[in-house]
Design a protein that fits this description.
GO terms for molecular function: hydrolase activity, acting on carbon-nitrogen (but not peptide) bonds, in linear amides; peptidase activity. One of its GO terms (biological process) is proteolysis. With 304 residues, the protein is α+β, with helices and mostly antiparallel strands. Helices cover 33% and strands 25% of the residues. Strand 3, helix 3 and strand 4 form a beta-alpha-beta unit. It binds aspartic acid (ASP).
């Protein structure tokens, strides 16, 4: 059997440990494990990296503990809308969706755009109409809004804060040697209406290019897109000759003078090497290689 691997993140943030309850930690670990197992099952039977990434992200979109699909962050008016992207490292094909409502699994809409749309990126009502035409599952706005996120939204509005975490992303290497990356988010809490995150922007939140690397980012999207962080990892490997972990760390720190804020990423190469890099004390993350038991970590002092 050829090498295969999947690695995921479920958001990076700077947070006091006591603000994350034991129950939350447990739910995060369980959700990450489920997503890794879902992706792994596909890779093990010879499925593609794209299929594995989409399935792993779909599982996290359906999990209300993460900021994607159900349980996503709400904008300044308390509304949920979503951004997502998928990229196929085999041929640089990609699909992105921005500010879309109603679609149960935004990552599936991104896939649909990659496979069946003449454009690379659809946003807003056009994206929603495309989802309807393609027969994707739609949900009432209330499906996406959980009590927990509504409470967090109230706090953000009262404190006039814009905060974000729990975005989900996955990178995979399949047995054919192909890489793929995907990211899905409900965006920042209390963001302006119409604001789009880094997640669907190819080269910012999401990038994959055989044989160099696949990357998915999380953190403050407004700086991630200005630093083209996902593409930077690739550039450091390809043109800078860096090893994957060094490239990932460089991408996070290199613009620190101008781009200040939380950032994290997961990356994977054709050798099944995995790199996590983040400037926060928490990044929910995990990986599994060759179908082995998933390795999961949340805090910066945990070994992965
Ligand atoms: N990157 C996302 C955004 O800017 C937030 C996150 O990663 O949690 O909306």
């Amino acid at each position: 059997m050829k090498k295969f691997a999947i690695a995921i993140h479920a958001g990076a943030e700077t947070v006091k440990r006591k603000e994350v309850s034991k129950a939350q930690e447990k739910a995060y670990r369980k959700g990450i494990e489920e997503a890794l197992r879902t992706g792994n099952a596909i890779l093990k039977k010879g499925g593609s990296a794209v299929e594995a990434v989409v399935a792993a992200i779909e599982s996290m979109e359906n999990n209300e503990h993460f900021n994607a699909g159900r349980g996503g962050s709400l904008n300044q008016f308390g509304e949920a809308d979503f951004d997502a992207a998928i990229m196929d490292g085999r041929n640089l094909n990609s699909g992105s969706v921005g500010s879309v409502r109603y679609v149960k699994n935004p990552i599936k809409l991104a896939l649909e755009i990659m496979q069946h749309c003449k454009h690379a990126f659809l946003a807003g009502t056009g994206a929603e109409e495309f989802a309807l035409r393609q027969g994707l599952e739609l949900k009432e706005p209330s499906y996406f809004v959980t009590e927990e996120k509504l409470k967090a939204w109230h706090e953000s509005v009262l404190e006039e804060q814009i905060a974000g975490h729990d975005t989900v992303g996955a990178v995979a290497l399949d047995q054919q040697g192909n890489l793929a990356a995907g990211t899905s988010t409900g965006g920042l809490m209390n963001r302006m209406k119409g604001r789009v995150s880094d997640s669907p922007i190819i080269g910012a939140g999401t990038y994959a290019n055989n044989p160099y690397c696949a990357v998915s980012c999380t953190g403050e999207g407004d700086i991630i897109m200005r630093g083209s962080i996902a593409h930077e990892v690739y550039a450091q490997v390809k043109y800078g000759g860096e090893q994957l972990q060094a490239a990932a760390e460089k991408a996070i720190t290199m613009h620190a003078k101008f781009l200040k804020g939380d950032m994290g990423l997961v990356s994977l190469n054709g050798e099944a090497e995995i790199a996590f890099a983040f400037n926060t004390n928490l990044m929910k993350r995990g990986y599994s290689t060759d179908g082995q038991k998933p390795v999961i970590a949340l805090w910066d002092d945990e070994e992965v």
